[in-house]
Amino acid sequence: MSDSSHVINQTAIDAAATVFRTMADELFTSSADQGLVNALCETIPADGGTTTSIILEDFLGNWLEFDGARQTGVSRAYRLNVLLTTWAVQLKVRRRDAEYDRSGIVAARVRKFMSAAQSYKDYVLHQGLFLNSGDGPVGFDGVNLFSTSHPNGPSGNQSNKTTSALSPLTFDTAFASMTSLQRENGEPFRIVPRYLIVGPKNRLVGSEITKMDIRGRSVANTGLEAGAAVVASAGVSNAYNGLVDLIVDPRLVGTQDDYWYLVGEGPGGAKPMFFVEGAAPREQLDIDLSSPTVMQNDALTFGLIADGQYAAGMWPCIYGGIL
User: Fold this and answer.
1) Which residues contact 5 (CB under 8 A, 6 or more apart)?
2) Are the beta carbons of 166 and 195 closer than 8 angstroms?
3) Which tops the pLDDT comparison, 65 or 173?
4) The CATH number, out of the four listed (2.30.30, 2.40.30, 3.30.390, 3.90.1690), of the domain defined by the range 10-56+79-321
5) Is residue 112 very low, low, confident or very high in pLDDT (cuts 50, 70, 90)?
6) Residue 125: per-residue pLDDT
7) Which of 79, 77, 32, 86 is nearest to 57 (CA)?
8) Distance CA 252, CA 40 (A)
9) Could you give the 3-state DSSP secondary structure of residue 66?
10) By mean pLDDT, which of 16-25, 62-71, 187-196 is the weakest?
11) What single-letter DSSP state applies at residue 248?
12) How many CB atoms lie within 10 A of CB 134?
């Protein structure tokens, strides 16, 4: 153990290190995934340090009468290879700021840094969602997560994507589409819609769809609900109230400010994305004033490093408005 008797204020450095280690355990070891990550992702352990293979099957065999012998069902197996990625983040603190700290400001800086760093999985998730102009990563069926041409439906391609803005009508279309998707043998996927995810721009319309007892209804000259060519409006009971929970995603801004997602869950907890988890975020501290790196840079480093990657999961569990 190095001699720290020459350090002007070792107490401040030790306090910052304690905050760092305590929060690392609380945020990345002891706590479960929350919010958006939990809604979208099924976590699986990495199988090796480079590539993990995920095998999915679409069972094509129907229940049939056992008439003297068992009839063997046919299944289509898919393999998705996921390349593990290393992610890192760090806070550098000037040596003088640490040594002359009398008010605990360094520990406070570390606390704020760790609070921001807990967005690790959320950040990586959005790197995947926003790939390919918002269509997401390529999934096990060979097309992007959001596509109008998912193959091997009961009678051709199936879609989980629209380019229309969020409204009660487009929400209704998405809900009906998600709950109507079928496997290759015509059996339903049995997806249960759970969440409507919107950005801050669509917070109000999202709330009107998911939380209001009464909603405004535009009427066309045909007497039907209208998106355009409105001749009248009225307040009607909101049949969508309580169907799903609303999540406002602060990363859906800028180019993605009009994006919206209807997210569901399939049998067995199937979700629209996987998170392949290698090493969870762990500490990399360089705070010994005798360290060659600290001496070279005249700075202390509080760092985190992790191995993981997102991948497209069960595409029927999500319907996206990609505008």
Assistant:
1) none
2) no
3) 173
4) 3.90.1690
5) very high
6) 94
7) 77
8) 15
9) coil
10) 62-71
11) E
12) 19
Tell the burial category of 317 from Cβ atoms under 10 Å away from its Cβ (0-12, 13-18, 19+): buried
Structure confidence at residue 277 as a pLDDT band (50, 70, 90): very high
- Which residues, including other chains, have CB under 8 Å from residue 317's CB and lie 6 or more apart? 178, 191, 263, 264, 265, 266, 270, 271, 272
CB atoms within 10 A of CB 31: 10
- Confidence at residue 224, expressed as pLDDT on a 0 to 100 scale: 55
User: Hunting for tokens 């107490």 — which residue is that?
Assistant: 11
Q: What's the gap between Cα 162 and its chain centre? A: 19
**E strands present in 10-131:** 41-45, 51-59, 75-83, 85-94
Rounded distance between C-alpha atoms, residue 261 and residue 198, angstroms = 7
Q: What is the arithmetic mean of pLDDT over 76-105?
A: 92
CB 294 within 8 A of CB 90: no
Query: Which of 249, 121, 250, 257 has the alpha carbon at shortest distance from 195?
Result: 249
Interatomic CA distance for residues 185 and 182, integer angstroms: 8
